Amino acid sequence: MFNNLSDKLDKALHVLKGHGSITEVNVAETLKEVRRALLDADVNFKIAKQFTKTVKEKALGQDVLTTLQPGQLMVKIVKDELTQLMGGDAEGLNLSGTPSIILMSGLQGSGKTTFSGKLANYLKNKKTKKPLLVACDVYRPAAIDQLHVVGEQIGVEVFSDKGNNDPVAISQAAIAHAKANGHNVVIIDTAGRLAVDAAMMTEISNIHKAIQPQETLFVVDSMTGQDAVNTAKAFNDVLNFDGVILTKLDGDTRGGAAISIKSVVDKPIKFIGTGEKMEAIDVFYPSRMADRILG
Ligand code: GDP
């Protein structure tokens, strides 16, 4: 995960580690390398620039030039700033409401259906939760079948209505079904398209208005870097979602989406997907991620 970024940051900071004392020029050179590493990771230019500016101010403010181990101090400052950039503290799901309604949004192929299954499985394993999965992709029968396969695999009921082409009606019927059958969490998987378009946005926004979910989650493929961030912005403008799900981190060597998305949409990354299997789900902890990136 993010190996390229880790290697480059390690190299950039390594230079300072060997020095007993350093100059402002050493700091400036190191930060130039840090900025280059972030840009190579597909972090937005402005974010990378602001990041190194903040790190520089903190480094000089904490007397990095006269400290005994400037390299260590710089690593700590960079780590703390990365943690802040990725969201600070971890944020959980809002599971109030009976049932708690979770609406999944995102482009086709982002990993929505897979993640819906992973989340249902994760909640089911908490014992107090009895989730219901809902198939609301009315355009692709294969997507409905896919959710049924996932549901069978994890032993979670899937609600669908193949002849019905109204996703609002399907979601409402699913919620009624959940109430009648003791499901305390409803996870609604919606249709995505290959790119952001008005019809998709109107549809998801109509579902959102009709069912008023406790959690609206935006699912995005981590490997798409700045595109992921732009897509997040488009969905957030319409849905004002509550959190981001970053999938396919197992294949992401760069890390740009993970690093920039929070500061662009000001919404926390809540979970990550780290593989195709149902167990490949983790709560996102910014500090742990920063630790991993900086080794
Ligand atoms: P949807 O169109 O948004 O519902 O996307 P899918 O759930 O069908 O996922 C698209 C593809 O990405 C599938 O082949 C999934 O197995 C794969 N996928 C989803 N999440 C992950 C993940 O975290 N890691 C990896 N490696 N593959 C994933």
From TrEMBL:
<keyword id="KW-0963">Cytoplasm</keyword>
<keyword id="KW-0687">Ribonucleoprotein</keyword>
<dbReference type="GO" id="GO:0048500">
    <property type="term" value="C:signal recognition particle"/>
</dbReference>
<dbReference type="GO" id="GO:0008312">
    <property type="term" value="F:7S RNA binding"/>
</dbReference>
<dbReference type="GO" id="GO:0003924">
    <property type="term" value="F:GTPase activity"/>
</dbReference>
<feature type="domain" description="SRP54-type proteins GTP-binding">
    <location>
        <begin position="268"/>
        <end position="281"/>
    </location>
</feature>
<dbReference type="GO" id="GO:0005525">
    <property type="term" value="F:GTP binding"/>
</dbReference>
<keyword id="KW-0733">Signal recognition particle</keyword>
<keyword id="KW-0378">Hydrolase</keyword>
<keyword id="KW-0342">GTP-binding</keyword>
<feature type="binding site">
    <location>
        <begin position="106"/>
        <end position="113"/>
    </location>
    <ligand>
        <name>GTP</name>
    </ligand>
</feature>
<keyword id="KW-0694">RNA-binding</keyword>
<comment type="subunit">
    <text>Part of the signal recognition particle protein translocation system, which is composed of SRP and FtsY.</text>
</comment>
<feature type="binding site">
    <location>
        <begin position="189"/>
        <end position="193"/>
    </location>
    <ligand>
        <name>GTP</name>
    </ligand>
</feature>
<comment type="similarity">
    <text>Belongs to the GTP-binding SRP family. SRP54 subfamily.</text>
</comment>
<protein>
    <recommendedName>
        <fullName>Signal recognition particle protein</fullName>
        <ecNumber>3.6.5.4</ecNumber>
    </recommendedName>
</protein>
<feature type="binding site">
    <location>
        <begin position="247"/>
        <end position="250"/>
    </location>
    <ligand>
        <name>GTP</name>
    </ligand>
</feature>
<comment type="function">
    <text>Involved in targeting and insertion of nascent membrane proteins into the cytoplasmic membrane. Binds to the hydrophobic signal sequence of the ribosome-nascent chain (RNC) as it emerges from the ribosomes. The SRP-RNC complex is then targeted to the cytoplasmic membrane where it interacts with the SRP receptor FtsY.</text>
</comment>
<keyword id="KW-0547">Nucleotide-binding</keyword>
<dbReference type="GO" id="GO:0006614">
    <property type="term" value="P:SRP-dependent cotranslational protein targeting to membrane"/>
</dbReference>
